[in-house]
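[[Local backbone shapes]]
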Amino acid sequence: MSRYFSRRAALVLLGLACLPGAVRMAFAEPAYPSRPVNIVVPFAPGGGADIVARTLAKSLGEQFGQSFVVDNRCGAGGVIGTTIVARAAPDGYTLLFAPSSHVVNPAVMATLPYDTERAFEPISLVASATVLLGVNPKVPASSLKDFIALVRKPENNRLANYGSAGNGTPFHLVSEQFKRATGVEMQHIAYRGGSPATTALVAGEVPFLFETAITLSPFAKSGAVRLLAVMSKQRTPLFPDVPTIGELGYPELTFSNDYGLYAPAGTPPAVIQAMAAAVAKAVRSPEVQATLTAQGTVPVGSTPDELRSYVHREIKRWKAVAQTSHITLN
């Protein structure tokens, strides 16, 4: 009897060894995810990336019946949190949720502790945050044309100072693009984040800046900020009367703060596909769409290949901007 069972067990094991890898995995491992998933956001709580990540995490948790925990690891323009994910085990339990800084950092930083294109498996471009050009209401200009004419006058040099969320951020680079496109000499004043920069705008410390609708909308609705342009290709439902930058003659300045979800390189394709499908389902849900659009954020839910192409294209774009503007960070 024992020899019979031993022989039978050997045959079973031999049969399993001959099965395709995906089938063998089904015998060896529980379905993904079988434990909580960590979503690293490389910026502080309360910002745009954090808000969208938490909205997504809630939906993913409901779909998979498992916890998706947002873990804020801020510092060094997003590099600290991104490095944590690059070095994590490629098992799908540590993911990166990053805004456009993910594709801007390779353009402005001479060295990074990871290769942005090779260290990660793209999952999905989750959403795009609308970016607005806002001015302090004391600035005597009600349109972009009036504003450019105003700051071109030598006596209005102070009005050409612009604020941003920090050196080397996407908002810094798009401001430099604006500077070249308009031919106006402007002075950059960097802050430690979009919220401090917006506070400075409202207080009149800087006359204008580019920031996301998530950050600027409350102030624009209260009259503390005047909006001159929407940087996206389409107008935002939040402010339907504000023209796009393309409508105003500067289509090359079109820009949005794009949020992508990534996994460490080497993560199993089945995990990547499962997550991409779940993200697509999440951004199609009425609840998520309502939450995002109320903040001026457009749901996307791309495929992994579409996000891969986006990363490659955007790194090239921002490298060109950084080189032309001589923007580098040590």
Observations:
- Residues 1-6, 8-14, 21-27 have pLDDT under 50 and may be disordered.
- The chain has two domains: 37-128+256-325, 130-253.
- The radius of gyration is 23 Å.
- Residues 130-253 form a domain with the D-Maltodextrin-Binding Protein; domain 2 fold (CATH 3.40.190.10).
